[in-house]
Amino acid sequence: MLEIQGSFDMTEAQTYTIPEYRFADFKKKLEKLNRKAVKLGCDKIGYQVINNTTIDFVNPDNNKTVNIPAFEIIVSGAAPQVGGWTFGAKIETLSDSKTFLVHSVPGVTTKIHDRFRSLGPGVCEHCNRIRARRDTFVVINEETGEQKQVGRQCLADFTGFNTPERAALAYSRIDLFDEFTEKDDIGLRSNFFGDHQDTHWILALTSAYISKYGWVPRSALSVEVGNDRPTSGRVGAHFWRAGRSAEERREIREFEELAHEAKHQERATAVVEWIKTELANNIRSDYDQNLVALTSLDLTTTKHLGLVCSAVAAYQKAQNLKVEYAKKKETDKNSKHIGKVGERVVLDVNVTFMKLMSGHYGAVTLVKFRDIEGNVLSWFASGDKEFNVGESLKIKATVKKHSEFNEIKETALSRVSVLQKD
């Protein structure tokens, strides 16, 4: 029996009931975790048998109750873990073995290194073993910012996944029950849609649904306005029809007819063209990179359905921004530089843009103005400024710099003080 590490409050301890025939495997699992603990310099895991008991199991073949000998145990210790690292991203390898998707963990703001896109899925920088892997993972050192690519098994060394409680829970299950569960799962999986679908058809269906319901991401469902299903869920229903009601099948037929209309077919083509040209040449995020990677393939795996559907919404947003930018450029085309660099000036301006950002020394607000002569002005102000877009101000400022971007002349200001608010 393994020694329990530290003190143990028996009144608070969680107990686990492990069948006798699985107990040897449970001990081997803990021994393996303890070898890992020694390697990583962590405390060992322990367990203690507190009672011999039986499990009453009903055999689903004949409904007879079987009494299975078992041990009731408690466990102690923590998962072996390399301290000071956090899980940063998952790198998924597509079927062509050349295209990679980077799925950053929500809340992680550190940019994942581009080198992982070419490192290859076979490399684990923790155990240094080369093996066939479909997915790898990026971990980030919280102190130094160092990033490593690791395999699925080594990921547990950085996340503390292999807890003694998880091991005890896993071995407390009964094999016979697991076997029936697996059979049921296989039966369910046979009803799921095929693994690959035509990318163009997915985009056309998405366009059709957006035309009626608008774009509904999974993160923003609104039952109050009738959008109780995400757009990708409605599209997915076309490839998984088993168990659908007559009303749902009717809607599926209706939107398949709608998706065949020229405007939705043309939009699907335009989305792909936009991604392969404009977006591919101006990638700003892992999301952009993943869209480019997925639409370079004619077929989409069903697990990427949501991401591909979102491409239509991203395309429409980009087109709207183009129109807004064209209007802004037309408005600002006559902008001229004002004053001389270093000169203090007094100006009547209108606030046209506000954006709060993070700077080296705290919050920074980018404020853009237009003066009464139509000249474009900008100011990077420290802190969160309480102006409103459209607000008229009289300001006193220092001319910091003259610049030009996309053929629009702009004057950067500093040391801005507000003399009057209208």
Structural account:
It is a single chain. This protein has 422 residues and is α+β, with helices and mostly antiparallel strands. The protein has 11 helices and 14 strands. It has helices at 20-40, 116-119, 152-159, 164-171, 175-189, 199-213, 231-236, 246-259, 262-279, 286-295, 305-332; strands at 15-19, 46-58, 65-76, 85-93, 100-104, 135-141, 147-150, 196-198, 299-301, 344-359, 362-371, 376-382, 392-405, 408-421. A hairpin with a 6-residue loop joins strand 4 and strand 5 (100-104). Helix 6 crosses helix 8, helix 6 crosses helix 11 (305-332) and helix 9 packs across helix 10 (286-295). It is extended and about 90 Å long. It starts with 14 loop residues before the first strand and ends with a strand. Residues 1-8, 176-194 and 222-226 have low confidence and may be disordered.
Topology diagram in text:
Layout: E1 15-19, H1 20-40, E2 46-58, E3 65-76, E4 85-93, E5 100-104, H2 116-119, E6 135-141, E7 147-150, H3 152-159, H4 164-171, H5 175-189, E8 196-198, H6 199-213, H7 231-236, H8 246-259, H9 262-279, H10 286-295, E9 299-301, H11 305-332, E10 344-359, E11 362-371, E12 376-382, E13 392-405, E14 408-421
Parallel strand pairs: 12-14
Antiparallel strand pairs: 1-3, 2-3, 4-5, 4-6, 6-7, 8-9, 10-11, 10-13, 11-12, 13-14
